[in-house]
């Protein structure tokens, strides 16, 4: 199957090279465009039950055969979704564990400090530290792939993570209020970061654009673009603002902040679903134009 795949090269067979479980070891370099089809073919052989299918990205390959494989593989690597890779990344980043809770709590605390000190720089720091995009992206993948287990995992991380982080932030805000660092007068002097709770049409537009960019960065392995996504949406800052507003009795502002949080989360997930839903159609249309079967190229 690998030898018949135009996007596969550098195929190596080591008979009896695998010891646990026993068997042959097969290795091949694949153009990204054909990786999904090869994985489907290997799974149809049941190799994940008798052995293992391991994917590892290669940063640099200098070879005429590799260049030929990239030319023969249909499509463009940046427009290709490797579903197993995407599922693995989102599954790892959407797990509710101590590390996720720690990052989310630290981000909420930073956001609260940014609100109290009226510091946009601290708010941006909270956006970058916040890990909430992982579960949101995983939820979008789960909706498209109908992966109920992944959906439950991501929803658990969001439903448990944010309340825990906000509760810890509330304790810190009350302590700051008791120490005289935070008061209603201090809250009324906030002007540079009041955009966080101002919900409007552009809140949804920014969330949709950021969610689209984030999902494109995930499916194309362009992780550098994710930093721009993190500092575009006000999910964690809205949570921190809601806590600070509630501790000083500004319930209207707290409610608006919670609405901002919800709008951003819904927008990111919706955009992620749309990007993933459109990707396979573009690939199939490209294969039809090249005269290849839309379901298999091997």
TrEMBL record:
Keyword Transmembrane: yes
TM ranges: 96-117, 123-143, 155-175, 195-219, 226-248, 254-278
Keyword Protease: no
Alphabetical keyword list: Membrane, Transmembrane, Transmembrane helix
Classification via InterPro entries: DUF389
Domain of life: Bacteria
Name of the molecule in the record: Uncharacterized hydrophobic domain-containing protein
């Amino acid at each position: 199957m690998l030898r018949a795949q135009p996007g596969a090269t550098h195929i190596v067979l080591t008979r009896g090279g695998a010891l646990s479980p026993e068997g042959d070891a097969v290795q091949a370099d694949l153009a990204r465009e054909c990786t999904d089809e090869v994985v489907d073919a290997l799974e149809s052989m049941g190799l994940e039950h008798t052995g293992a299918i391991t994917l590892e990205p290669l940063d640099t390959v200098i070879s005429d055969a590799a260049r030929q494989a990239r030319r023969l593989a249909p499509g463009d690597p940046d427009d290709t979704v490797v579903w197993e890779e995407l599922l693995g990344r989102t599954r790892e980043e959407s797990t509710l564990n101590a590390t996720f809770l720690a990052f989310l709590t630290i981000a909420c605390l930073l956001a609260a400090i940014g609100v109290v000190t009226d510091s946009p720089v601290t708010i941006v720091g909270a956006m970058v530290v916040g890990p909430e995009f992982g579960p949101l992206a995983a939820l979008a993948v789960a909706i498209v792939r109908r992966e109920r287990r992944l959906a439950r995992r991501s929803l658990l991380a969001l439903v448990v993570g944010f309340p825990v982080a906000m509760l810890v932030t509330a304790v810190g805000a009350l302590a700051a209020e008791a120490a005289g660092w935070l008061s209603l007068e201090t809250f009324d002097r906030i002007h540079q970061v009041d955009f966080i709770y101002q919900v409007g049409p552009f809140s949804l537009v920014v969330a949709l654009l950021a969610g689209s960019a984030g999902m494109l960065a995930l499916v194309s392995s362009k992780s550098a673009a994710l930093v721009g996504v993190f500092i575009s949406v006000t999910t964690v800052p809205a949570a921190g603002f809601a806590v600070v507003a509630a501790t000083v009795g500004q319930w209207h502002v707290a409610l608006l902040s919670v609405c901002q949080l919800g709008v951003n989360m819904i927008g990111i997930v919706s955009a992620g679903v749309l990007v993933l839903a459109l990707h396979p159609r573009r690939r199939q249309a490209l294969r039809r134009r090249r005269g290849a079967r839309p379901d298999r190229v091997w």
